[in-house]
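INFO batch 0412 | record 1 of 1 | parsing
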Amino acid sequence: MPSSRSAYQEFLRAFRSRELQKRLEREDAASRGAEEAPKAGPERRQKRRNYLWDYIRWLKPFFVPIALVVVMAWMTAAMSLVMPRATMYIIDQVLPAGDRRTLHILGFGLLGILIVQQSLDLLRNWRTAILNARVLFRLRQRLYAHLLRLPLHKLSAMKTGGLTSRLSGDVDAITGMIQMSLITPAVAGLKIILTIIMLLLINWQMALAAVMLMPLIITLNLVYLRRVRPIYRSMRHDRAEIDGRVVETFGGVRVVRAFGREKSEEKRYAQRHHTVIRKVLLANWYEYLIGSGWGFVIPLVGLVIIWFGGSLALRGAATVGGIIAFQMYLMMLLMPVSAIVRSYGEMQHAMAALERVFDLLETRIDKPDRPGALEAPDAVESFDFDAVTFRYPQGEIVLQDFSLTVPGGATVALVGPSGAGKTTVTNLVARFYDPTEGVIRVNGIDLRDIRLERYRRLLGIVQQDVFLFDGTIAENIAYGRPDADSSEIEDAARRANVHEFVMKFEKGYDTLVGERGVRLSGGQAQRVSIARAILADPRILILDEATSNLDSDSERLIQESLRALLADRTTFIIAHRLSTIVNADLIVVMEQGRALECGTHDELMERNGRYRAMVALQQRGLSESAAWAAT
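INFO prediction complete | emitting tokens
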């Protein structure tokens, strides 16, 4: 791994040569699973415009609250213009005349305006917060629902970090577009126009002098946006990588310790953080320089107005009150000008986030229902594979010309070496994927003609790699049937040999299992997953090495439970242990994506083919293990 100094030097080279932006776009593209960064030019600009119009149409339900916020902002902006003009009148007219009554009336009037202005501003900020929260919730909910339905290979390409960044940072950036693209420009634009009018009404000569300084102010803001923002964007990428590595390190902490890699992980963590610190210091340096520029420009503007205005006052072309009011209006002018420039810069970032989110929303969901899709049947009478061929996206063929007829309620055992296509068959049964060629039918109906959501309700799956959610044991058992009561949960647990070890925990079924079931042993977690399948009461059951992590005693108890569970259910079992497959109604021997042999245990043993050789090999291995254990 390169040192933090060399990594920082490479960053500086890219930063100074303007290559950093392109690199960041490539990294963004990779994080969302794209093969390359989107190309610049008319095509990309048109795409962003289309997405912006889509977003505006998506905001249609919020148009009334947005308009209300803008109107309140305009009202507060108009009220803020009263104070400088009143100050000018008091200094130039009221005080020289010694008119105390008018002074008190104006004072109370300005106080009332100030109270109304601040109250309205408070209400506007609150309404804006509510609006942003509603938009954020609606967009995040829609994106989350869409992500749940994306093809598996798309989700795998994005990885966990890419998914969470879309749901958090990108959605937050898009939500801010309401403020940046609508409210801020509308309010700042009106305020600039009204303020310039007031400046011209006070003294057009001083107004021209002030306007000549605006390009300098805009330049300072643009420098900030173009030089500092890419640094912070690069730091966000670095921190995302660091956080991802931290998650991996502690997720595999047993491997880290087993290979004695603690020191190397410490070094990697320190080097990456040191690089980030160097970037932070560089960003701080630019901010200090730009801050110094602001510290020079603002007093310079005041000096120019006092100097030039004083010269006009000496010639009788300006008044003291006019100069003071002009100063107040000028300070009010700087704020909206800066806000518009900064909003423009933030809009570029928001547009990039908008593109990433709407790219995902435009991605076709996984296997959308066909027009006129049918409801899933209540019972499975037959399950047929008709000349099925399948290849994974951008992969080799893993299942070829696979045909199989399974009677309803039958148990099918899939056996064969690793890579034979057994898991692919069960993935097709679960409709995680559809065949590349051929047809899979349930009761003579093409699976693709059945509503996917309804079909999945027929399924129950117990996998070798057990996944439990970070919740209680009861919640994990009831995941497939969240409406199940405690007696039903306990019954499923007893049938899966879970109840006995659960009752040894202090909190029983309310015991937290931890992330991915880390607080349970492998066998305990697998039994919980079996209880989950039992409670779901599926019509089609998939068991992928469901007893692989169990000891002999637990396996015997689970086998008894599985016999009751398999009754009247169409079951597909992937297993290597003879005890799991010997009683199957149909055993399919697979190799290189093809079915070599099909039949019952007795039928296949009589054929003296591949299955018999596999059984003999396993029995020989068991005999040798028993002999070794006896010595």
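INFO post-check: The two ends are 49 Å apart (CA to CA).
INFO record closed
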